[in-house]
Amino acid sequence: MTTRPYAAAKRTLSVIDKLYEVNWGLVLLISLIACVGFAMLYSVAGASFSPWAGKQMAYFAAGLVLLVVASVTDIRFWMSIAYPAYVVSLILLVAVMFVGHSALGAQRWISVGPIEIQPSELMKIALILALARFLHGLSVEDISKPLRLVIPLVMIAMPAYLVLKQPNLGTTIILVADGVSLLFLAGLSWWWIAPAFGGIAAAVPLAWRFFLHDYQKQRVMTFLDPESDALGAGWNITQAKIAIGSGGVSGKGFLQGTQSRLNFLPEKHSDFIITNFAEEFGFAGSIALLLLFAIVIGYGVQIAASARSQFGRLVAMGLTLNFFFYILINGAMVMGLIPVVGIPMPLISYGGTAMLSVMFGFGILMSVHVHRQVEIPRHSGGII
Amino acid sequence: MPLFDRKDKSRYATFTRRTLMMSGGMGAVLCLLGGRLYQLQIRDGALYRVASEDNRVNERLVAPPRGRILDRFGVELANNRRNYRLLLVAEQAQGGVEAALDTIGHVIQLTDQQKKRVLHDLAINKRFVPVVVAENLSWDEFALINQHLPYLPGVQPDVGETRAYPFGDELSHLLGYVAPVSMDDKNTGDEDPLLDLPGFRIGKRGIEKSFDAEVRGVAGASRVEVNAYGRVIRELSSSPAHAGKDLYLTIDRELQHFTDQQMTAQSAACIVMDAQTGDVLALSSTPGFDPNLFNVGVTQAQWQGLMTDDHKPLINKALSGEYPPGSTFKPAMAMAAVQNGLSNLQVNCSGALQLGNHQFHCWAWKKGGHGHVDLKRGIAVSCDVFFYEVARRLGIDRMHEAATQLGLGKRTGIEIPGERPGFMPNSEWKLRRTGIPWQVGDSLSAGIGQGYVTTTPLQLCTYVARVASGRAVSPRLVHVVGNDRQPRPVAEALPFSEEAFAKVREGMNAVTNEPGGTAYGFRIAEQGLEMAGKTGTAQVRVITKAERGSGVKKNSSLPWALRDHGLFIGFAPVAAPRYACACITEHASDGHPQVVIVRDVLRFAQQRNVLGLRTAYPLNAASADSASGPT
Hints:
With 384 residues, chain A is mainly α. Chain A has one domain. Chain A is built from 15 helices and 3 strands. By secondary structure, chain B is an alpha+beta fold. Chain B folds into 2 domains: 59-249, Penicillin-binding protein 2a (Domain 2) (Alpha-Beta Complex), CATH 3.90.1310.10; 253-287 and 315-612, Beta-lactamase (3-Layer(aba) Sandwich), CATH 3.40.710.10. Helices cover 38% and strands 19% of the residues of chain B. In chain B, strands 2, 3, 4, 5, 10, 17 and 18 form a 7-stranded mixed beta sheet that branches. In chain B, strands 12-11-21-20-19 form a 5-stranded antiparallel beta sheet. Chain B has a 3-stranded antiparallel beta sheet with strand order 1-8-9. In chain B, helix 14 packs across helix 16 (384-394) and helix 14 (330-339) crosses helix 17 (396-405). Chain B is elongated, with a radius of gyration of 37 Å. The N and C termini of chain B lie far apart (109 Å).
């Protein structure tokens, strides 16, 4: 399949070697999905590149550069910065509580010079890297030992708590899901997993009582009965379903969607962009897009499976799952399967930070692929 | 691979196994999403498609422009001008309608009264019905609202049309006015959807009311695409509104204006008619009101002012005022007299007629009466004793027959609402009504137009036109509706002999044109324009015997409301009558202002040659067939 089949096996790879090893098919897929995003942003702006599609293209271009740079960077470098990145992200998450500014009622942003940073986005990747590094040093038996398990759980709990306090329920869920998935993949005993799920089920009423904000509770309530408040908080859910459903089999045609163009959908360019796609391209288009996502996820799983190092496997799978959780939560949200939480559709929803963080994630995934033959001693993992 | 120890291998196996499990899970979840898509887009697709159409498409009524009202020469008496207004839709007003009104109040002036009215209107209408918040806004206010529109959810700026009456109060009684639809209007069985349109106005009085169906037009409909805030994005399809029909009246605006001016804002009424056809050339009742006020909205103070004015500006005296005709009734009595063989009746007037133990006085009783009086002189000097004798000999039923044939004591059928019938008594009526048989004395009072007899000024004008033309003409105001000429009521020859007409016209000529006639001092001197007429005074109060003994008080020394009404009927030119005119001045007979008005109006009409001018529409049915339409 390739003229230099074992190039990756070489102890050291040149940059050219690495570029050759980059999975360009995956890059093409990602670009294709991003193009769907451009088209939708163009459509919801009333057939205009401003204000979203043009900027989104620029973000994507920057993301592409970031992806390539990340992919040719040695996987051991990523491993070495895992803990520092986690600590910095944690500090930023604390800082955002004090100096961050709010958008849509939540403190999520922090300004560093001219750059706006969303620490929770950084944390997603940092947490995956840090957990993968920690788990890299543990054997299957070690993981299920309570004293060993406490550390990764704390590593998950600290950022999750901080993000929940912003408040940003969607990202909290993703952080926890990413972390728990990595523990599971690393071999956490079923004796832990089964009681944990039981505990979560028991904790839901408590969380409802003590941890959820009023707006979060309201979202859940309106999710359960959107028609009860069809013009108020249930508006998003009802109108999103109308948009998707009215697309029918083949859709209304590009630029012909009425729901978002006529402003029946707030957040039409961000969290709810996919409804416009479903409206304009119908069931056929939606399934095609779902397939594209599935192929990307398949690539991610395949990369994870073919990596030699436990760190690489865990990072690749963690990033793939992260990507999947985004799609799942956003998709289920706009289709009215779960309450509305503020999670964008990766690669499609408008937003610079989200785009860069997704592309950076793919870059590291690609780095795992490029460096799949690299072996890393187990003692490089662990705490330090 | 030295670094791959046993533990690594077990780790790898676990990882692979669990990765497969998770992949399966991810696949299953993606299938679940696909299934949900199937559910929404295929299974329920049709349902959601309808919902999205409902979302974006609104049906809106398009109000038709109201038909204009024009005079006989095409001068616009009522037309439409632009009306910038502001509508509010309750269900789109985020944060409630009161908050929305407060926000609007920051941009334009809104009084508490206005706010109260809007809240009331919103309460009685469905939540998606737009309600008028303010209208007749200036362009600046309108522009300001448009500028602030993003902060005013539920507010719709709108350019409508509003009725305008360029000549204000001059034609107020004739044209009437338009005003917002009331509950009563909706209960008349009128199911036109336009009645529910916010701010829609219908005719409430006058021509605007009686021809409302014609000038209203037919609503159009517009299917528009609206966004989530209800703002119209584009029109998908529309059926146009059909404008209301234009009305051409028989009125001459110039003559109307002149007539109105002669009345000098007294409480008075004056009608000018084509004596040969009954077409009304001017119909004036003063004082009037500004019909534009009702359109914009009358304030409480303005309404109170109109209601309490003792000159009654809201009453069209020309056809709603019922007055004793007084001596203007005498030509009708003379007609009856000739018709019943009394053409050569001779009476000696000594100032009073003795009937039983009651004396019936002549107005000239102080001077010792009129002496020898025949029919012509009876009319010319308006001798009461002569007509007492006529009445005594005729009896009330023959008087009733003649008066009714001449158009008195019954509605003329003019095309505007509110016409009163007046009253012409007969013997049967009195018996039925009071149980007392008709007395000869009752006939004597009726013979000089007093007692039970009442007429409207419009009836008087119809009556003088009938005397002048010899035919049973009836008043008509509307000549053309749209492109259809309105039929003229058939004017059959009256059942009076030529002699009767000749004698009475001769008498009326003597009133104005022969020395000794009661209105000789007010004759039209211009050759060929001479008028014939008859004066009259309608007594408002009962003169007591005691008062008569001590001398009847001068009118001028009485309070205004107790003074006599002055009446005059006339036609011109005498030789070939073309114009008929009747006038009443309430509580003003001194100096005969009513005679001056009729004289000046008849002179003006002839000099202007109203009936000789080319009209916007041909006036005769015969020539109408070859006419092509309005000029």
